[in-house]
Amino acid sequence: MSRIETAIGAVEARSRAELVAVLAPRASEYRGTGLALSALLALLAGILAWYLLPWADGGDVLLAELVVFPLTLALLELTPLGDRLTLRPLKAEAAARLARASFLDLGLAGTPERNAVLFFVSLAEHHVEIIADVAIHSRVGTAAWQRIVDAFAADVRSGRLEEGFAVAIAAIGDRLAEQFPADGERRNEISNRFIVLA
What we know:
There is one protein chain. The protein has helices at 2-14, 31-52, 58-78, 81-85, 88-105, 134-140, 142-157, 161-179; strands at residues 18-24, 116-122, 127-132, 195-196. The chain is an alpha/beta fold. The chain folds into 2 domains: 2-28 and 87-196, Diaminopimelate Epimerase, Chain A, domain 1 (Roll); 31-85, no CATH class. Strands 3-2-1-4 form a 4-stranded mixed beta sheet, with helices on both faces. The chain starts with a helix and ends with a strand. The mean pLDDT is 90. InterPro entries: TPM_dom (IPR007621).
């Protein structure tokens, strides 16, 4: 964390922009996945009990459903299986929503020059995003941010999470220094602390 905070401080010493890095272990609990799949499997267990057991009555069908539902729900909620079975677009949407909420909650949309940047990583969803306020985004553009995200993802796949963070922050800093170079003494409006969401 201290290496990343030092990298953020170095970036901000070279530019007038604000940079914040956020790491989220996960963006959501995805309770809907567990509930939906558990209900579906319980219904299927009831149908199978009714179809495969000729002596089954309504009580047996209900018993099968009542056994399968909590067992499946516990399996999906208490193991990584629920996350793996959650559709990728749902995970991407949850991570993007958390990134935007973090951008607003941290006050990055309120800087005087509208030149703040959020580097957001959500581990469970494998989601990386750079959100830049309007002034910096209009000057840098989506393609430049995406190249930084792609390089970071390659570092993470190679097992270099900390190094990837430092390299990505330095690359963001290069864009910020180009577009909003430091012009003497600057006031640090937002903390350089590396934020890990609980």
